[in-house]
Amino acid sequence: MSKTVLITGAAKRIGKEIAYTFFNNGWNVIIHFNKSEKEAKNLTEELNKLRPNSTSSIQANFNSLDDVIMLAEKSLEVFGQINGLINNASTFYATPMGKISDDDWNALIGSNLKAPLFLIQALHKELKENKGFIVNITDINDQQTIPDHSIYLAAKSGLHTLTKVLAKELAPEIRVNGVAPGAILEPPNIKLDENKKNKILKSIPLGRMGTESDIAKAVLFLADSLYITGEILNIDGGKSL
Ligand SMILES: NC(=O)c1ccc[n+]([C@@H]2O[C@H](COP(=O)([O-])OP(=O)(O)OC[C@H]3O[C@@H](n4cnc5c(N)ncnc54)[C@H](OP(=O)(O)O)[C@@H]3O)[C@@H](O)[C@H]2O)c1
């Protein structure tokens, strides 16, 4: 039986490329989505045409813990096993002091930190049994201090810490690692002007933005690396140096 990976936020962008990469390496794929139902269904159909019964999609809103638990339960039923979990889904926007609401806290902490933790908790027995892996997608800025982004960075640095703690706690059966992207894609809700783009490019020693594939390859590498745990790989063209 093919191994199965659950990838959160996998209907579009980086998550979609991770789904293609695992699929092309023989994995069954569970594509989690929230709002991108059409994209998730199209991707599921495309992959199932290439390899029947290889892909499924499940909707869940990570602002709700019930939805997170439901995602884990449904995922366990789809292919009868889970061997890997990739916590990729994320909400990203600025939250300047004085303008922070409870909804902002719930959205940014929910998708970037709370859902990964509770998904791991709901799936850890299954992953232990299958000697599986977890990859958390963090951010090279998660140890930085960027004004107006306190909640997002608190969530991502929490995910960074959680990766390290759980690598120790869930060993030796489950390997827990992270991938920290640098500048890969413009955030979905923000259009950068040319000046800002050039400034970003100048800050990257390798002289280009990263691609979805740069991230997906790193995730697959960690999934396949049986003697690596508790590591967070910066995939950023040297930006964090
Ligand atoms: N893009 C970059 O350059 C960059 C840089 C640093 C770190 N990263 C990290 O890399 C990962 C992928 O980046 P990306 O830019 O491809 O991500 P993205 O497009 O911003 O988000 C990925 C998916 O997360 C899902 N999501 C958001 N809020 C959710 C919620 N409340 N419940 C459930 N799902 C939710 C969305 O699914 P639906 O569309 O189905 O609603 C979305 O498609 C993220 O963890 C991000 O923080 C990216």
Largest sheet: 7 strands, parallel
Count of helical segments?
A: 7
End-to-end span in angstroms? 42 Å
Number of strands: 7
Instruction: Give me the strand/helix succession.
Output: EHEHEHEHEHEHHE
By secondary-structure content and strand pairing, the structural class works out as alpha/beta
* Large-scale geometry: globular
Q: Roughly how many Å is the radius of gyration? A: 17 Å
Using the coordinates above, name the CATH class.
Answer: Alpha Beta
For this structure, what is the CATH homologous superfamily?
NAD(P)-binding Rossmann-like Domain
Give structural notes.
With 241 residues, the chain is α/β, with parallel strands linked by helices. It is built from seven helices and seven strands, in the order βαβαβαβαβαβααβ. The protein has helices at residues 13-24, 37-50, 65-78, 102-129, 150-169, 194-202, 212-224; strands at 4-7, 28-33, 55-59, 84-87, 133-137, 175-181, 232-235. The protein has a seven-stranded parallel sheet, with helices on both faces. Helix 3 (65-78) packs parallel to helix 4. The radius of gyration is 17 Å and the shape is globular. The model has no long low-confidence stretch (mean pLDDT 97). NADP nicotinamide-adenine-dinucleotide phosphate is lined by residues 9, 11-15, 33-36, 61-63, 88-92, 110-111, 137, 139, 181, 183-185, 188.
